[in-house]
Specification:
408 residues; Carbamate kinase; VC0802-like; 6-stranded antiparallel beta sheet; globular; binds aspartic acid; binds magnesium ion
Length: 408
């Protein structure tokens, strides 16, 4: 007998038929003697529909009211799923985040879980019930409803799995696992049998949208074995866990991630003096614009060129701020480009192997792809290239690092 947390995303509970299918899946696990805590998202499209309703009334609704509104989506699915389970003769009980008591801080729309009371859950499981919990929501110490940020049901599931000490947390979704890259860009992408938390975290941060980033952080921190699998077909999915295998034996590169939401800005002719980086990036941070890659280069005339990337949505705002900074500090000019993408290779095998960067650069060079920026960490290398090269870059790297699916 095992204890599982199963999480079903929006498409998996997108219609009454699908909710019934989810109930069947849970019933099957129960019949085998396993215990199940199910976490569900709102029906697909529902959260967006609610956001749109709010925007019809107010362009900037308060975050507190947004949370009250958005949390209703998940409340619908928990009750419907329980009804479907009852219909199958399976004992089940639903709880909102506040009813469980998933205690969060008070940062509405992006709250963080602080504590989960597992007493009701354990009591229910013990008396043979399936426990169905609303994803994405919690309650703060004052009783206000909070939500965890878009895609937050993944985090609810992982946090619950940690709290109840589940054997595994299954994330059921519309894909059958984590792939070496997005199969829409490279049809030869393969499903990975397993991947480490670290790699998954990089993949998620670098643009792979399979799991919410925070849920992966949480899983790593509390060592919750996570499995991503399809709710529509049987299969082993991808296991995300710590890996005892020696790094020397590992594939060099496990996956290729990319992010299209990038833009870069450059200030040229910056006086080469202490404090310029902070003068440039300070006002950007003050406007809550997140900066990703940063490169600074000294030119021959003892000035520097300073380049960094931001989210494409922040491009014009960042540009306006820089124009002002540039004239204030007597730099030459500001240029920018929002037709760029970031392509990254990720793998813990990189740590113990040399020459991965040069293989990457050589591969891109052979395709005539110009690299505009580079950044590295222990287990990833990212490059910025022109947007038009995205597919070519991903496919050629996928092949170069031996990730292509074998011909059948
Ligand atoms: N329903 C929420 C959203 O659409 C949470 C989730 O699905 O994970 O973002
Ligand atoms: Mg989701």
């Amino acid at each position: 007998m095992a204890l599982y947390v199963y999480k079903f995303g929006g498409t998996s509970v997108g219609s009454v038929e699908r909710i019934k299918a989810v109930a069947e899946k849970i019933k099957k696990a129960r019949d085998q003697g396993d215990q199940v805590v199910a976490v569900v998202s709102a029906m697909s499209g529902e959260t967006n529909r609610l956001v749109a309703l709010a925007k019809e009334i107010q362009t900037q609704p308060t975050e507190r009211e947004m949370d009250v509104l958005l949390s209703t989506g998940e409340q619908v699915t928990i009750s419907l799923l329980c009804m479907a389970l009852h219909e199958l003769g399976c004992s089940a009980c639903s709880y909102t985040g506040a009813q469980v008591r998933i205690l969060t801080d008070s940062s509405h729309t992006k709250a963080r879980i602080q504590e989960i009371d597992d007493r009701k859950i354990h009591a229910d499981l013990k008396s043979g019930r399936v426990v169905v919990v609303a994803g994405f929501q919690g309650v703060d110490e004052h009783g206000n409803i909070t939500t965890l940020g878009r895609g937050g049901s993944d985090t609810t599931a992982v946090a619950l799995a940690a709290a109840v000490k589940a054997d595994e947390c299954h994330i059921y979704t519309d894909v059958d696992g984590v792939y070496t890259t997005d199969p829409r860009v490279e049809p030869k992408a393969r499903r990975l049998d397993k991947i480490t938390f670290e790699e998954m975290l990089e993949m998620a941060s670098l643009g792979s949208k399979v799991l919410q980033i925070r849920s992966v952080e949480f899983a790593g921190k509390y060592n919750v074995a996570l499995r991503v699998l399809s709710s529509f077909e049987e299969g082993p999915g991808t296991l995300i866990s710590y890996d005892e295998e020696s790094e020397m034996e590992k594939a060099l590169v496990s996956g290729i991630a990319f992010n299209k939401d990038e833009a870069k800005l450059t200030v040229t002719g910056v006086p080469d003096l202490p404090g310029v980086a902070s003068k440039i990036l300070g006002p950007i941070a003050d406007q809550n614009i997140e900066v990703d890659m940063i490169v600074q280069n000294i030119a021959e005339d003892a000035t520097t060129d300073f380049t960094f990337t931001v989210h494409r949505n922040d491009y014009l705002r960042a540009m306006a701020i820089l124009e002002k900074v540039c004239s204030d500090m007597g730099a030459r000019r500001v240029t920018g480009d929002d037709n760029i993408v970031k392509v990254s290779i990720v793998g813990v095998g990189m740590r113990s192997h040399a020459g991965i960067a040069s293989t990457m650069f050589k591969t891109l060079a052979e395709e005539g792809i110009n690299i505009r920026m580079i950044s590295t960490s222990e287990i990833k290398i990212s490059v910025v290239v022109d947007e038009k090269y995205l597919e070519l870059a991903v496919r050629s790297l996928h092949k170069a690092f031996g990730l292509d699916k074998k011909e059948q």
